[in-house]
Every structure is written in structure tokens, then in C-alpha cells.
Amino acid sequence: MDCTVSWLGNTGMAFSAETGSGHLLNMDGAPEAGGRNLAPRPMELLLAGAGGCSAFDVVLILQKARQAVSGCEVKVKAERASEDPKVFTKIDLHFTVTGKDLDQAKVDRAVKLSHDKYCSATAMLSKTAELTYSIEVRSE
């Protein structure tokens, strides 16, 4: 896996990244750090990646369990250290899983498997942060 990140020049603190799979994304800093607030911060992308990785696992596990899942939303909230490097110290993931006749135990199991076994992103972040999660199941 690889990625190339390029500074966009004298326009502030904006960067462009091209992933190994050929996708582009932009990042920018906060105005107080010289950015122009035109794109997500790099640390926001880490949280988005963790939420996406875990949601991917949950949906895949539920589909394999023949659950009629139609939606999966993860709200990720984090706290950071006050001193540099300002690593994440606490991360909470709140899963809202929607579907028809979902089995609560199977949803719980899917989230637990993602958290304990499959999600590479949260596994890495758990080295510096306390990770917690909660689950809400909604019927269609």
C-alpha cells in the first residue's frame, strides 16, 4: 500500500494525496495554522478512516450472517493529548445499524468482531487511545 502527498505550494497549508489505488483527496489546515479551511484536516481523515474501516467490517459480517442490513452509520468522537504529538487519547464509535428484522445479538457480534479482530485502523489507534463503542439498532 502506498500514497503520495504533495504540498499545493504557496497557497497555505493545503495538500493533495494520491492513493495507491489511484484516488485523490485534499487536506488543509486550520486558518490559525496557515490553512484556508478548504478540506478536512489530516487527523480528521484518520478518524474517518477508522469509522469507515469498522463500518465496512460490520456491514460485511452482517451480510454474511444473512441479516437484511440497509444502513450503517458510525459517529466517531475523539479526544487528543494536549502536548505534541497530539495523539488521540480517547475514541468513541457509536454505531447505528438499520435493517429489517435485525438480530440484536448478531449486530453486537459484528461490532465486537470488528473491534476485537478485524479493523486494522482501530487496532492501530488503540495503541495510544482508549477505544469504546456503543450500538443502536433501528428497524425499517
UniProtKB/TrEMBL annotation:
Transmembrane segments: none annotated. InterPro entries: KH_dom-like_a/b, OsmC/Ohr_fam, OsmC/Ohrsf. PANTHER family: PROTEIN YHFA. This is OsmC family protein. It comes from Polynucleobacter paneuropaeus.
